[in-house]
Backbone:
């Protein structure tokens, strides 16, 4: 165990930006914090960094309470959203800042700066000013600056948020491999589910300062613990059904579930990967819209039964039915998740 | 505008209408009309600014009609000239440093924290800056002088001068640096903290270097103001302290040595030119480095105990520096031997209590209002003519015209007054015996401001509005009257209004040219403060309080009606 939060709460006046957050971080664990804007993600980082005082609870490092330790003594690295590079210092000046504050000798600083710039692939950029760098280069400088003083914990606030889509995909892979080499505890804040699922050993979903889920990414995807988390992960097929033990009934669907379920009214999630185009399928419907994304296509299907919902599904490849075409869908029972009612 | 409207058949194309309207925009092609418009302001500035300035030059360099550099150098190297120049310089340096140091925590407070009453306080901090120098002098005499309620005796010391300068210029540093600081990304400082920098180290290595352009800009303005300080030094400093401006006045009014005064004026002019050039050059180089600004930030609430303490101490400091002198002045205006009364105010009306004045003190209020109104009217006329030429005729002629009209801003009121005194006697009509001279001097001081406030508004009027009027059948002059005038007129009125407010308290130029029987309020306060006895002191305090209220009211009124597009004064 490295970092531990126990009931950490941050208040801005009357509003709670962070409510009663509790978790522990393993010695080389990567925690992805996922949530919409205003959910308290950045506040969480700022609280751990010591930039935001706690109204209640405690944050500790190896069982030692951090409350009295000011930010500059915590030895944590924080990479800010939009990077916050010092505009009056060149790349070297930015990366060397933490080492200078520590009082390192010039020689040692030179060596370390060269080392981290090499790690992020910017060896030739020492004399450039931040304003002369592209977004991706700034992002790397910010990472190098945070890593230079070898922090015991690395925190990143939306590190890819300001970049365009193609660059994001590329840098996400790069970050993943750098993190694997670093073997240090990492908190990675993002609003993008794909980033969170790629980076995190565990994913923490925040909503209005409250932890809604905290679990490994695969588990999170397979069984989102509640409707908010499911919808935030982009799952929209949520409906009410009647259960009689194993089988659930709706006017448009009857499914035999693999596991027993309490009888009565139930709120269910049908994951988009749980619907398959199948000429013998149980559900009849019409394609309402399709959005082609290259490797896969997202379809919205209007089921023919009255009172039936619009279902969302993902079809691999480019062979998909046109809008207005009639289709039949089969349901994979394993893709049905029971949500708290 | 819908696509259908655009593609519909029109008698002539929109492009053509636009080009017609633009080429016929008022004055654009009418060189002769521009010259006619420019003639009046040009003649005004030539007669009342250039001519007096040349007279000073001649008085200093060729006093007897013969160019005599040796005599000029002899006057220049007299010990009192060097001493005065040296004092002017060092008191300005110390005043500037002190103001920056005192105002910096306040700038941080307003830039970074959110607290109740923040907006009101921010608005109030500007009050000392718009107050007449004489009111500031009176307030500091009340606080530190022989009748101080706290028994402080700092009048006629350098401390009183420095404190008054801090009081006067606090808002300059607060506004410029605080405004800039609020735009600075607070995460830069947080980033430094995360990299192991203590609060102080983060300030020193990150915030301070980034603030430098704003601090330098504010400091140069404060330096300029304190370098040309006149009223404050004359009132608070006493006989042993004199800046160049004060010495010009003494040489003229008390020692009657016009030649020495002219020499001092030339030294002052040279110094001002150098300062303005340096400032302009610095502004140019600083503009390039200004790109690190990020979007607006709302400020953080106050939460920890140390933050609370910092805010409380800071507000206390602001209250003590800015509020206390004015409060004591008001208190002194109400105090008499046994408690408080309005006796001092009542005595302003008293024929027998005229003291140093030739008229009952209350007449000074009427004089000031009449002069200020006359000035505002002249500014309105000359300002609209000049602004029209500068705004619509964008060539080198308009630029040099603009520069010429701005020149009085770079000199000082004292030099304008002194120039009047030595030059206008040679005119066919000796204006020096006429009270008209005061509004004329004031117009010179205020005109650059009015033009500055009006020209951008005139330029900013969307030419499509004029085009729309043209397409609808209005002739160019009619279009201008119906479209531009309502917008520009407002800016002009506000400019003239500010001129009115500021000139109620004009002192430097007025003191040279005022007639004994038509004193303005600042002159009356100055004369009353020079009188012994508690009656004159009470009257001075009462008059200063009235002048403060009048100025504040005028500024507030015109600040309220200010158009969003106009540049403030």
Residues:
């Amino acid at each position: 165990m490295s970092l531990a939060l126990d009931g950490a709460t941050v208040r801005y006046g009357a509003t709670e930006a962070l409510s009663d957050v509790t978790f522990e971080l393993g010695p080389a664990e990567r925690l992805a914090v996922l949530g919409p804007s205003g959910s308290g993600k950045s506040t969480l980082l700022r609280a751990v960094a010591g930039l935001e005082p706690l109204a209640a609870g405690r944050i500790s490092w190896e069982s030692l309470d951090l409350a009295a330790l000011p930010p500059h003594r915590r030895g944590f690295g924080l990479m800010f959203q939009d990077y916050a590079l010092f505009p009056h210092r060149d790349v070297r000046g930015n990366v060397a800042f933490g080492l200078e504050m520590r009082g390192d000798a010039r020689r040692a600083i030179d060596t370390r700066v060269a080392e981290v710039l090499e790690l992020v692939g910017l060896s030739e950029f020492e004399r450039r000013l931040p304003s002369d760098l592209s977004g991706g280069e700034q992002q790397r400088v910010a990472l190098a600056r945070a890593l230079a003083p070898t922090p015991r914990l690395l925190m990143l606030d939306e590190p890819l948020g300001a970049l365009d889509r193609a660059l994001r995909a590329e840098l996400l892979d790069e970050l993943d491999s750098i993190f694997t080499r670093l073997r240090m505890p990492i908190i990675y804040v993002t609003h993008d589910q794909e980033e969170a699922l790629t980076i995190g050993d565990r994913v923490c979903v925040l909503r209005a300062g409250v932890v809604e889920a905290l679990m490994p990414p695969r588990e999170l995807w397979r069984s989102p613990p509640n409707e908010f988390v499911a919808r935030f992960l982009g799952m929209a097929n949520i409906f009410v059904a009647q259960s009689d033990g194993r089988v659930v009934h709706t006017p448009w669907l009857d499914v035999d579930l693999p596991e027993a379920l309490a009888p009565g009214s139930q709120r269910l999630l049908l994951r988009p990967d749980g619907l398959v185009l199948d000429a013998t399928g149980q559900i009849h419907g019409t394609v309402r819209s399709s959005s082609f994304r290259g490797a896969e296509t997202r379809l919205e299907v209007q089921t023919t039964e009255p009172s039936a919902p619009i279902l969302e599904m993902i079809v691999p490849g480019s062979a998909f039915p046109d809008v207005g075409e009639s289709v039949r869908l089969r349901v994979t029972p394993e893709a049905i998740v029971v949500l708290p009612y | 505008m819908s696509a259908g409207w655009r593609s519909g058949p029109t008698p002539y194309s929109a492009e053509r209408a636009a080009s017609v309207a633009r080429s016929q925009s008022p004055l654009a092609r009418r060189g002769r009309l521009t010259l006619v418009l420019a003639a009046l302001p040009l003649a005004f500035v030539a007669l009342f600014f250039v001519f007096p300035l040349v007279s000073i030059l001649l008085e200093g360099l060729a006093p007897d009609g013969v160019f005599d550099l040796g005599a000029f150098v002899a006057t220049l190297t007299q010990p009192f000239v060097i001493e005065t120049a040296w004092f002017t310089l060092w008191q300005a340096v110390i005043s500037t440093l002190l103001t920056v140091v005192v105002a910096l925590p306040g700038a941080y407070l307003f830039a970074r924290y959110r607290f109740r009453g923040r907006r009101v306080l921010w608005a109030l901090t500007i009050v000392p800056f718009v107050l007449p120098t004489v009111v500031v002098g009176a307030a500091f005499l009340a606080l530190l002088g022989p009748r101080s309620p706290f028994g402080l005796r700092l009048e006629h010391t350098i401390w009183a001068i420095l404190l008054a300068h801090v009081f006067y210029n606090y808002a300059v540093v607060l506004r410029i640096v605080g405004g800039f600081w609020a735009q600075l990304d607070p995460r830069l400082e947080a980033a430094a903290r995360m990299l192991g920098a203590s609060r102080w180290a983060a300030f020193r290595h990150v915030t301070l270097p980034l603030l430098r352009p704003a601090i330098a800009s504010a400091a140069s303005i404060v330096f300029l103001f304190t370098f040309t300080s006149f009223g404050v030094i004359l009132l608070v400093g006493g006989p042993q302290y004199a800046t160049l401006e004060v010495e010009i006045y003494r040489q003229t009014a008390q020692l009657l040595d016009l030649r020495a005064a002219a020499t001092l004026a030339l030294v002052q002019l040279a110094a001002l030119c150098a300062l303005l050039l340096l400032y302009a050059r610095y502004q140019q180089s600083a503009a390039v480095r200004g790109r690190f600004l990020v979007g607006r930030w709302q400020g953080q609430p106050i939460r920890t105990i140390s933050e609370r303490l910092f805010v409380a101490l800071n507000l206390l400091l602001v209250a003590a520096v800015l509020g206390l002198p004015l409060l004591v002045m008001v208190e002194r205006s109400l105090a008499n031997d046994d408690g408080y009364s309005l006796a001092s105010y009542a005595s302003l009306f008293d024929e027998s209590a005229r003291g140093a004045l030739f008229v009952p003190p209350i007449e000074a209020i009427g004089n000031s209002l009449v002069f200020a109104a006359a000035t505002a009217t002249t500014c309105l006329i000359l300002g609209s003519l000049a602004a029209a030429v500068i705004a619509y005729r964008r060539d080198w002629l308009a630029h040099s015209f603009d520069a010429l009209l701005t020149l009085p801003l770079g000199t000082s009121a004292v030099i304008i007054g002194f120039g009047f005194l030595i030059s206008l006697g040679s005119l066919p009509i000796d204006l020096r015996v006429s009270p008209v001279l005061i509004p004329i001097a004031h117009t010179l001081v205020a005109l650059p401001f009015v033009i500055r406030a009006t020209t951008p508004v005139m330029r900013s009027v969307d030419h499509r509005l004029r085009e729309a009027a043209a397409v609808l059948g209005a002739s160019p002059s009619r279009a201008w009257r119906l479209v531009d005038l309502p917008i520009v007129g407002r800016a002009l009125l506000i400019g003239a209004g500010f001129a009115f407010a500021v000139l109620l308290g004009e002192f430097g130029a007025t003191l040279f040219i005022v007639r004994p029987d038509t004193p303005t309020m600042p002159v009356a306060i100055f004369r009353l403060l020079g009188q012994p006895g508690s009656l004159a002191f009470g009257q001075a305090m009462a008059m200063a309080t009235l002048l403060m209220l009048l100025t504040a009211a005028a500024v507030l009124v015109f600040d309220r009606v200010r158009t969003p597009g106009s540049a403030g004064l």
User: Anything to note?
Assistant: The beta strands of chain B are 113-114, 300-301, 335-336, 339-340. DSSP finds 25 helices and four strands in chain B. Residues 41 and 490 of chain B are 21 Å apart (CA to CA). The first strand of chain B starts at residue 113 and ends at 114.
